[in-house]
Structures
1.
Amino acid sequence: MSGEKIRCDACPVMCFIAPGNVGACDRYGNEGGQIVRSDPLTILDRRLEGGGAVRPFLTHDWDGTFSDEDIFISGVGAGTTYPDYKPAPFIVSREVAGADTVTVVTEAIFSYCGVKVKIDTDRHLGTEGAVVRAGSEAVGHVTTSEYGSQMLSLGGVDHLTGGSKAEGRVTCDALLRLCNREAVDLSIEGGATVTVQAGMAPIVDGAREARMRVGCGSATIGMFASQWLGLVDEVVVVDDHITGVVSEHQAGKVLDWPETGIRIKGRRSTPGRYFQVAGPGQGWGGTDIEDPLSILNPWLEKKGARPGLTLLMVSTTGEHAAYYVLDDALEPQPAPMSAALQPSVDLIAENCEPALCTVMFQAGAGGSLRSGVTQNPVLLTRSVQSGETQVTCGGVEAYIWPGGGITLMVDVLHMPEGSFGYVPTPALVAPLEFTLPRAAFSALGGHDAAVRSIADIVEKGGEYGADMRLSPPKGRG
Amino acid sequence: MGAQAAWISGGRLHLHHGPIDMIVGVEGPGAAAGFARAIRRFDTLLEELAAELPRLRSANGALPRGDVARDMVHTAGRFPEFSTPMAAVAGAGADAVLAALMDGPGVCKAYVNNGGDIAFHLRESAVFRAAMAGTGGQIELPSTCPARGIATSGWRGRSQSLGISDSVTVLAEKAALADVAATLIANAVDLPGAAEITRTPARDLYPDSDLGARLVTTHVAPLTAVQISTALTAGMIRAESYRAAGLIHSAALTLGPQTRIAGLLPLTQPEAIHA
């Protein structure tokens, strides 16, 4: 390190810059006795939408024909200013829809961060609250079951910094790979092992999930009851959560569906809707059963059971289906499904969406990094909360949680590839951009002198050998 | 690296050289020629100023040779309080580019925004609108208003200030006048000796600073309403003295939640933003 002040020769002002300081322009500083400026950064170009590949960016490619609305300088590769109170690496002036705006671009170091993972599956992955491990380290837990999906909460400050050193390191590594859309194997205590990769089907205990349920069992009855009427005497949609029975269900009642004398195990919630018909598992409709008849009690003749009565049992994805006819002893016997009925089963499958894993990066941007934008950080928080400042990660609009602070959530799949990095503290590094009206930027005490045009960034970045790449904005507009 | 000119959306021109960024807008049949004149004037602006920087950074000395440098010296000299010609640099640069731009026919409306300090031209019935820092409001100037320059100063951001105001926005006949006045009024918004204010010698922050060893504000801890009011009153006294002397048209002084207006500032408040 050199302790000498040095003369900046980037422009005629020839600032004399002390170590760790910047010149009059805020564009160049003295870092360890050298005049330095920007890091490589990723530029999102709307003109590349529709198939353009990410490519290295060279200044001589730049044809100068762009409007500010085509171009978005993302935080990917922007680098970080440290300590935090220095202006963010890039503060970009743009005109968007006729208004002067400023975008503050940085790569933020997130100590408070994690991912919420949504796994589209009916299969039981583990009980709510069960520990999720990567290798032998706890990296998160199973949280709620949602409609057709199981949610995991991974990472967070307690796993990153609150446990052992190994736990923090493994958690950081799992988060980094998930956020960069790599596949990560997770094991759930007392449950399944699952391979999670953003945008891909989950692999549960080695089997790739194909379809996401059309709805719960009861909803499936509600959707398709009229299509079954006249083709079959009884339909049971098997579901670990809510199993539906058409003859008892309100959807059947309004069609004057006759009683069948069927009796379902489990706890009756409302007519035709049953909870806990079996245990959770990898079988039919997220239950642990392989034989659907195991959820039935003996049929009641006085309630309408009769020899020859036909029964369709189907799972919530249409993945499992079986057809039965009651024999003289009122026992269901397997039979080939009629050609007329098969399309209704196919329709359930057709109405299912592909099962995917979704990785939402969630982090707190309400800390010290705010001072890269303004010298009065709470003003930025308020501006974000009021909707005046838009928060994006790699150009993708982030959802901001209501309430205090700046807690953001963003789908990693929409972000440019390789957006995430890490520091060994451990913490994740992610691109972050704040966009706000130029006047509002000044009003909240923004680093006004650090504001630059896109053209300036493109040109100067190239001159200093900084790598740039062009990337189409994904999942936007 | 030389001066650069680039077109940005909205048909505006972005001029950049070293620490200077200007946004130029022109309306009227003579817009293209006006832009060309603005670019030509901007081309040498920074080099002219850099050549005489030592003089421009000191409060006294021989009259410089360059037009803009002379304007800076003259403008700063019209105010009784200490400043160097550098206090006028942004405004004077904007004035110079606007003057070149206007030196031809067919320009109805034009502005040169030099990092928030704005010189503008209005013909009959034209209206100039500017968003106002600190208040969320908008200034709406009819052509009948004599002001043709706006500038804003405060201790936040890169400009150094001896005071604690979040922003002081000034309307004056020229941007250079507004620039110096905003700087000096912002210096007056102060609470001398208050423990809540942290100050650092200017040259410790920027070795080249024209303020030398003078203490500039680097942090302001939360203030009481009475403290805010006291500081703003000190600024208002200076603002009113400039108004009485005909140096400025009007000013808006903001510190925390309070804003005070000296003179008639045509300020409109937008509706509150709801999340």
2.
Amino acid sequence: MLGVYMQSIISGLLIGGVYALIAVGLTLIFGVMKIINFAHGEFLMFGMYFAFFLSTLFGIDPYISAILALPLFLMFGWGIQALLVRPVLGAPDMIQILLTVGISLVLQNLALFFFSADFQSLNLGYSGLTFEFGPARVSYSRLFACVVALSVAGGLYLFLKKTDVGKALRACAEEREGALAVGIDVEKMYKVAFGLGIACVAIAGILMTPFFYTAPTVGVPFTLTAFVVVVLGGLGNIPGALVGGLIVGLVESLGEIMLPVASLKSLGTFIIFILILLLRPQGLFGQKLS
Amino acid sequence: MDYLKNLRPLHFFYLAALLVLFTLPLYAESGFVTGLMPEGMDGSALLHVMLMIFFFGYLSQSWNISGGFAGQLSLGHAAFFGLGAYTSSLLYVNFGISPWVGMLAGMAVAGTFGLLIGLVSFHYGLKGPFFALVTIAFAEILRLIIQHLAFTGGPMGILIPLMGDSWWEFQFLAKEPYYYIALFMMLISIAVVWVIANSRWGFYFRAIREDEDAAEAIGIDITRYKLLSVTLSAAMTGAAGTFYAQYTQYIVPDDLIIVAFSIEIVLRAIIGGAGTVMGPIVGSFIMTPLGEATRIIFEGGGAGISLVSLLQQEIPAGEKFSQYLDYLAAGGGGGLAIMLYGAVLIVVCIGMPRGVVPWLRRRFGRYA
């Protein structure tokens, strides 16, 4: 019995690391632009297809695709921000939300049109490899996914703390007018933030391709999960998203063995979501919202 | 006779439209009408499209009360819709209670659920995107629960047995009765929203939408009026669920209680103009035929080629690519209809965020 829990806790933490990276992207976009990106999971899906096709057609390993994805998806996000999101920045919440919903619909169905609804999965030599860790079995690809995802998230955190661009981004997040006043190109920072956020989620998707299927609708549940993580950690709070990701991964994984039906696992997550939204909308670690 | 003097061209337009809509089933099968329609469509298909326009117009109008007028962005209206559908269907299948009674029960259940979501959310001061997120979460929880309960038929849903052609059973072999029911529901929803828009409630709703703090400062009990808007909107949405269940005779949680369906509802109101009386209806008249048409035109889908097997085939890359182009030309994996929805939504959000009706009013207001 202990073994089952041990296994569940490990799997939960491993996938939680990936959730953390997905959520870091979402929270960065929200923090800087105050926009909730409902199309977040669709960029994850495109990341997964990117890795899938590179691997199937050209034999490029997903971990290499993850590196290639950084500049590519940075530009993708940059372009989406410049073309579609920028015009609605001053608009009411409803219009901003519906715009990203529209982007999500278009991306999802572009994938459906071009890649069909078939579930695709990669069969890599190392996909099924595991090692024993106490009473539990750990899959190498899941462990890598978690470690790389957390490193990328950590790297982003350092980037925001140490570099000039990072400081400018944080300035935009804190106080838009102030950032403008000291001469920061806020419009450009928005593009950087959107690009980085999209790159994070795409990389998270790519890291999952060795052990997770790819399909046009694969992103939808991840968007919801990312909302939960981000709200849990506090909107705009990057360390919060990291901890939130691990917590949600754990809750889901434990829910799977503790609830009567495994497919009910997301019930626990949604209940936490509602409780957090109601009781601490600023998140577990956030300051009070104004 | 004062109101005669106030008649405007717009009123004549509405009268003419009503006349056409009320008499359409009489000549839907006539050679003139079928001649105007695309190849392969008959009068019955036309009635179906019209009926879907009314149905979505009604749904979108229901959303408009809380989302458009009171400004509470719900992305979980599919939950209220699903509750209405399930309540009346369960009552009908298990106890033989007429779906008309079930519709009222469904409205009560959906309204209560809306009230509950509102009570919890507004008590904790959730606004804007946070309220949207919480409505999604409640809808997802409801779907998960319905999927796992035995008496709701689980993921398989409920098949409503065909009991014959009668008003009591809310079942008809012909399209016409459904057509008139949907039309009446839409007209009632317009009337309800028109009355609200011109009443004290409507002014309170709009005041709350524009600035909650200011509305509270001038003495509006904002929680009370937000709750009213959400409850009324949810109850009305529930009634559409019963109609849908009786019309399709089959309900499944994965079709009804999903975010995509909530978005279908919101989409029409936004495109037509949220917070206007005719916006959702105009939105439905634009988007529903567009959706149905693209579905018919594009959803051939696939031409029998599977992408998985195509990728695995040992043929030269050039041939693979040309086969893939054939696959795309045959409609690819589908999805063009919803892609179009998304594109229209993006264009409207960027170019016409207030919707078509306010734009028309600005442009042609002097003629109306």
